[in-house]
Amino acid sequence: MKNLVFVGFILLFGCAGKPHSQLSASSEQSEALRVPAFNADSAYAYTAAQVAFGPRVPATAAHQRCGDYFVAAMRRLGATITQQEATVTTYDRQTIPLRNIIAAFQPDKPTRVLLCAHWDSRPFADRDANPQNHRRAIDGANDGAGACGVLLEIARQIALQAPNVGIDIIFFDAEDWGQPAFDTRRSGDSGYCLGSTYWANHPHTPNYKAQYGILLDMVSARGARFFKEQSSVYYANNIVKKVWETAQSLGYGDYFVEQTGIGCDDDHIPINQIRKIPCIDIIENDPNAPKGFGDYWHTLDDTMDAVSRETMKAVGQTLLQIIYNS
Ligand SMILES: [Zn+2]
Fold first, then answer.
1. CA distances from 309 to 35, 38, 227, 286 (A)
2. Which of 313, 303, 17 is nearest to 144 (CA)?
């Protein structure tokens, strides 16, 4: 994922069209459910398990094994699994295999909420301080694995006690194969978000719709700050408000900052623009930070050492609170 230059962004995007759907059309007639406690140790273990495979770069054995791990874990939790396999083209015209993994809970429920994250690891540590590392793949403990770890723990809680809405969890592939900084050739496309763009054009069920979506990216680092991502505010501000207010009410206001941050080229863009599902991005970003993101971003420092159970708890508990009140 990369940050966008945001000058004139709102003007460029034009009219938002229809108002966004309500967060919880069904909540009035649904019985109130106990909100489960998010287990951060479990989420941490799910994250460490992914990182232990090695960098999950498409077309590698580590990637294959980690994909199999997601499928087996979600099957054990009772989800209906759809796998999308395709060939996609990178920014520099290479073709790579793609594997999106979709886990549907209560697939017959018409009212659905989409939760998603990318599961691939960036093939290039192009922001590393040492140029000799720029062509090495990153562990992606935060940039990939941590968000998937939060989603796996949420899936585990859903399996123990179903919420009133159906939940679809999508692990998008090939988010992070965007053009590296060391490659200064002109290319037509940034090359990010290949998996989510493919899914948005080829949803796993015909005309797939969800009430709203929440994308997680880099949600596990120690001391993370989640400023409100600009495209999320633009496309789905009612969901942004709901999530940030919920986080505040749970005592996580230090993480969820009540200010707009940077705009990100991330998987929520095709979901909003192509599938027309209002979708926000909870992503560590700080407009005052040197990189806009955490110091570990796209470096070899994105390891388990940077992962924090407390940050995962703040994000995971907030999401459960939202889901079980939907
Ligand atoms: Zn990334």
1. 19, 11, 19, 20
2. 303
Q: Which pTM does this prediction carry?
A: 0.91
Q: Are strands 256-260 and 226-228 parallel, antiparallel or unpaired?
A: parallel
31: number of Cβ within 10 Å: 6
Strands 166-172 and 95-105: antiparallel
Sequence-distant (≥ 6) Cβ neighbours of residue 190 within 8 angstroms: 2, 91, 178, 179, 265
Say how many Å lie between the CA of residue 115 and the centre of ligand 1: 18
The helix (run of H) or strand (run of E) holding residue 103 is: strand 95-105
How many angstroms separate the alpha carbon of residue 208 from the centre of ligand 1? 27
Which residue has 């005052």 as its token pair? 288
Cα–ligand 1 centroid distance for 302 (angstroms): 10
Distance 80 CA to ligand 1 centre (A): 28
Structure tokens at 293: 């993101």
The residue behind tokens 């948005």 is: 200
Tell how far the Cα of 2 is from the centroid of ligand 1, in angstroms: 7
State the Cα–Cα distance between residues 77 and 241, nearest whole angstrom: 31
What are the backbone angles phi and psi of residue 83, rounded to the nearest 5°? Answer: -115, 130
Ligand 1 centroid – CA 176 distance (Å): 5
Sequence length of the chain is 326
* pLDDT tens digits, 156-211: 999 999 999 999 999 999 999 999 999 988 877 889 999 999 999 999 999 999 99
